[in-house]
Amino acid sequence: MVAANGTGTYVPFTEVEQAIDWINSLIPFGIRPGLERIELLMERLGHPERRLKFIHVAGTNGKGSTCAMLTSVLMAAGYDVGTFTSPYIERFTNRFKFNNEDIKDETLVEIANRLRPLVEEIAVTELGSPTMFEVATAVALVYYGTVVYPDVVVLETGLGGRLDVTNIVTPIVSVITNIGHDHMDVLGDTIEKIAFEKAGIIKAGVPIVTTVEQPEALEVIRKKASEMKSTLYALKEQFSYEAVSSFENEQIFSFNGPFRQIEKVGITLNGAHQITNAVLSLMTLEVLRQYMAFVIDDEVLLEGFKRAAWPGRLEMIRTSPRLLIDGAHNPEGAETLAQALRDTYRYERCHIMMGMLSTKHHHDTLRHILPLADTVIFTEPNFRKKMDAEQLEAIAEEVLSSEAKRPEMIIEPDWRLALEKLTALTKPGDLSVVTGTLYLIADVRSHILYHTESEKGW
Description:
It contains 15 helices and 17 strands. It has helices at residues 16-24, 36-44, 63-76, 105-123, 132-148, 184-187, 191-198, 215-227, 272-292, 298-307, 331-343, 362-369, 389-400, 415-425, 438-450; strands at 54-58, 81-84, 96-98, 101-102, 152-156, 173-176, 208-210, 232-234, 240-247, 250-256, 261-267, 315-319, 322-326, 350-355, 375-380, 408-414, 431-436. The strands form three sheets. It has an eight-stranded mixed sheet, sandwiched between helices. A six-stranded mixed sheet has the order 12-13-17-14-15-16. Helix 13 (389-400) links the parallel strand 15 (375-380) and strand 16. The longest helix has 21 residues, at 272-292.
């Protein structure tokens, strides 16, 4: 094959930016469900994924937080943990963590150089080019399976489950957080169809843990678990919890599981939904303890939950004036944010800045958020699929036509100027919130905390 230099050999990448640019150059190939290309890649690499133990995490919301809690507890117990998540908040390398540290730039360069000729060989076959997410997943599997060798990899699905690239692995336990209305253009237009795709991660004989509660979605998961002869652990059936107390930056719950009870587990993540994510993580860890001989002492378990953090979700990144960021990019996420704004945070006035992608369903998202706002600033993320701020405001007008309370609405497409306006509006007793797509959250978080630009990519 003739390479980029026209000689039949490749000029290897020497800088991490070159490797990332190459991976991102595959974005135009889009999202193409199916495992044929990743299977061929893994075959040519000697199947690094077969050397690893995985916890496979699917669901509409809460995947990242659940992965963070599992990672935190397992690390506290002395295990080496790989964590693969998406999208990232600041740097492309955030996706590939080993013991909560990003992959080294030089390691990413080395792996990209290994993958590139294989990717380009596959690109000229009838299968077509591997996609950006397929190559990113391949990077993760090569990194964990040939470089760092973690005891366990916490692996988040990209989209769906059944045809998701990550579904090439056979895990030691499968996890489904919840089912909601997201990516309906790919996964289906009903809760049952979406549940069917998520349930596709259930493998023969591998236990499945879920906090899905809609009866119709749970039934789909139950049927799949039965077909695969997998033991199902479902919230309110095999395990349950009781919320003990909830304050800003401290929530405590008690856990009641099939193997034992655990009193007073504390987390610092905010929002009632994070208790559910913690309970899900705890039940998953109990399965690992019971069936996989993982050693996790109670003291270590409690410490791991307390330490767990996940950026960009109900995260207070500034205290004067207060600025909360939350990636509520679908109706279920917006409902969760709205509940937290009612139950967890205290303020005189609430000012919200919001930017969305054009691919999402915004009416229901806005319906949850707008009634709580005194001011809403509509802006645009610096991303190719952004929705125009004016369009978002027009949808807000439709939503507000039936609402009694009406916030002041401002259109400012430039997110930096929008952030300046938000800051100027926020008095000492007020709360400002940036929400919507994680691409906007990434920009604002990097700008406030590090005075840098965030990288971009899914």
